[in-house]
Design brief:
alpha+beta, Beta-lactamase Inhibitory Protein, Chain:B, domain 1, single chain, elongated
Length: 116
């Protein structure tokens, strides 16, 4: 009887013990990304759209690289891998204007229309 209670208790703990949701940074929205135009968008507009960068790197030749990152990890069940989404936007600024940018996205979940 004690063995059955122990097994039942463990099953309940594993069934209802979902892990935490971890969120770092702010989601990088498609509509805002589409407003960044190479050679036209000013650095101030980039900060207005996405906020303060997670990191600013000084590059050779007077360029700056603004790095924006977003990460969300969600544990749904103890027997499955966590769902996650990772976004990274790197904006290269020279003389106060966007020279280039790179966006990458990685996830373990369903991709929605707004992510394309």
């Amino acid at each position: 009887m004690k063995f059955a209670i122990l097994i039942s208790a463990l099953l309940l703990v594993f069934t209802f013990s979902c892990g935490p949701t971890i969120i770092e940074g702010k989601r990088i929205e498609f509509a805002k990304r589409s407003e960044v135009i190479k050679g036209q968008t000013k650095a101030a507009r980039v900060i207005e759209l996405f906020g303060k960068p997670a990191k600013i790197e000084k590059l050779p030749g007077g360029e700056e690289k603004y790095v924006y990152q977003y990460y969300k990890e969600e544990y749904t069940h103890w027997w499955t891998l966590p769902r996650f989404e990772r976004q990274r936007l790197e904006v290269f600024i020279k003389n106060g204007v966007v020279e280039d940018y790179r966006y990458s996205r990685e996830s373990r979940d369903v991709i929605t229309e707004e992510d394309k």
